[in-house]
Amino acid sequence: MSRLARSGRGGIVLLVLGLVAALVLPWLIYPPVALDIACWALFAAAVDLLLGFTGLLSFGHAAFWGGSAYCTGLIVLHGGLPFPVAILGGAAFAALLALPIGYLSVRLTGIYFAMVTLAFAQMLYFLANQWREVTGGENGLQGIPRELFGLDLNDPFFFYYAGLPFVLAGLAAAWRIVRSPFGRVLVSIRDNPSRARALGYPVERYRLLAFVLSAALSGVAGGVFAIGHGFASLDGLYWTTSGQVVMMVILGGIGTLWGGAIGAALVVQLQDFLATAGFEGIGIVTGTIFIVIVLLFRRGIWGTARHLLATRRARLSSAAGAGAERAGSPAPAPAPASPRPAGGSPDAAAGERC
């Protein structure tokens, strides 16, 4: 079996395992916590699309997560539309919000890009806090309904399966983006923007499009989160939300896309366990675990596992190839004897060759 076939087969197996895990998750843990894991997993994949495949670290993605949550809640509360329409409206709002922010930010890189996006997110946080007539101020939006065409989805268990298709569709979109020619251009821009620009690719335009797509996926996650919990609050817009999702991406593995789901499951489960136990220093524990994992697993949990598996496959393939070469190589033929005239001496033969 070729390496490409093995890789495709392994990807299908992982896809099936991930889908089964998503379907059985609310049977194993508390359904609201399962919904949190799903939403944060999509949010982490959206951030990894920008960080791991474009090379841009954003500390302002809370603006798209929280902004979509508010927009989704307002559409349901004041528009009376079904929550699927509201979630799509929140994602569209996040994408439109990302256009001016990205246009002013993508020309910067490194810490400058991170600080500019953080500044825009904090501006939106301040606006939501002051515009109490619309956002509710510090109280946020309360009592967001979860009905769909007369179906009562107030039970968190049933709503999990109503919101899961949006999360899976967002993850599938992220997977398709990074494996498309557009995604390969993003990787080339991440690795060497000068060379990509010399090849004729408009680097800033590609970065802006990646920024908007990442914001739209973050908006889908924020909308599902708001409908699932029935409220939208200022916490979703605060800078700690951006920091938490970046931490999830790093824990799972930057540039792995699926590693964010592992990071989200670890952080959300740990926070829920500590909060249930009454422990108040949750940030201390999560920060310590983050430092330990970063020091021990430089590629993150999923990134390290994938690297070790690839290294093992390469060694096995190399060993198998060397063994096959040794087994199939013919024995060296003996050197032909020098011709010698019958009855003549070696000296005579040497003189004849001359």
Descriptive report:
The chain is mainly α. It is 75% helix and 2% strand. Strands 1-4 form a two-stranded antiparallel ribbon. A two-stranded antiparallel sheet has the order 2-3. The chain is globular. Mean pLDDT is 85; it is low at 1-5 and 337-354.
Mean pLDDT: 85
Main pleated sheet = 2 strands, antiparallel
Helix share, percent = over 70%
* Radius of gyration based on Cα positions: 29 Å
The count of strands amounts to: 4
Low-confidence stretches: 1-5, 337-354
Shape: globular
Strand order of the largest sheet: 1-4
Order of helices and strands: HHHHHHEEEHHHHEHHHHH
Query: Could you give the distance between the termini?
Result: 57 Å
| Count, helices | 15
Structural class: mainly alpha
Which features characterize this protein?
354 residues; 15 helices; mainly alpha; 4 strands; disordered N terminus; two-stranded antiparallel ribbon; 2% strand; single chain
Could you give the topology of this structure?
Layout: H1 3-28, H2 31-54, H3 62-79, H4 83-105, H5 110-130, H6 132-135, E1 141-142, E2 147-148, E3 151-152, H7 156-178, H8 181-191, H9 193-198, H10 203-229, E4 231-232, H11 239-252, H12 259-276, H13 282-296, H14 300-328, H15 346-353
Antiparallel strand pairs: 1-4, 2-3
Helix pairs in contact: 1-2, 2-7, 2-10, 2-11, 2-12, 3-4, 3-5, 3-10, 4-10, 7-10, 8-10, 11-12, 11-14
